[in-house]
Every structure is written in structure tokens, then in C-alpha cells.
Write a structure and sequence with these properties.
The protein has 118 residues and is an alpha+beta fold. The protein is 32% helix and 36% strand.
Length: 118
């Protein structure tokens, strides 16, 4: 089961990155590690650096992907973004969530939640 979830997660992150490129973002980093956790995608658009959390599910039968972003996960996302921004001299940034529903071989449905900074 774990390898299935890992495969779906990787697929979702690639689908999200492809989506961002089509939307005009420049991907700066993927799977960036910080002492506070990993940042799935870091991208730049219109002089704003965005830290993306990507959540993927094969269907919404058990809930939407964005529902798995708990308050604890939100705190880790904020701490990781603040750390990365400080270390790289980034002044203008935000945190977004990309919820991906689908699986390999199917067209993903991607919902973009913008500027979810806490």
C-alpha cells in the first residue's frame, strides 16, 4: 500500500508541476528540504515566490485532498516557508495548496487554493 501511495503522490506532484508551468510559473525547486519539513514545489510568478503543498487522491470518495492539510501540517508549511525564504533572501512569498484528484493514465483534476498563509 505504501508504494501505491508513493507512486500516486509522485504522479500528483508531477501533474501539479506541469499545471503550474502551463499557468506561467517558473519552477525553482521541488522537494526542498528544511528543518521544518519538505516543500513540495517552489515556483515564481510575477515576482512572488510561492511555496506549494501538493495533496493527491485517486478520488474524492473519502474526502478531498485539501482536507488532509491539518493545522499541524499548516504550521509546518509556514515554518518551512519562513525558513526557506529567510535562507534565500525572499521577501515576497505566499503558500498555496494544489489539490490533485486522479491517477496515472487519467487527466488530473487540479484545484488551486491561493495564498493560504496563516
Amino acid at each position: 500500500m505504501k508504494s501505491h501511495n508513493l507512486r500516486i503522490g509522485r504522479w500528483g506532484e508531477q501533474a501539479a508541476a506541469d499545471h503550474l508551468i502551463v499557468c506561467g510559473y517558473a519552477i525553482l525547486a521541488r522537494n526542498a528540504h528544511t528543518p521544518f519539513g519538505e516543500i513540495d514545489i517552489i515556483a515564481l510568478q510575477d515576482e512572488i515566490t510561492t511555496f506549494f503543498e501538493v495533496k493527491t487522491r485517486t478520488s474524492s470518495k473519502l474526502g478531498y485532498p485539501e482536507e488532509s492539510v491539518t493545522p499541524k501540517k499548516q504550521a509546518h508549511m509556514t515554518a518551512a516557508a519562513e525558513y526557506y525564504a529567510s535562507e534565500h533572501g525572499i521577501d515576497h512569498w505566499q503558500i498555496d495548496i494544489l489539490a490533485v484528484v486522479g491517477s496515472p493514465g487519467r487527466k488530473p483534476v487540479i484545484t488551486h487554493f491561493e495564498n493560504v498563509n496563516l
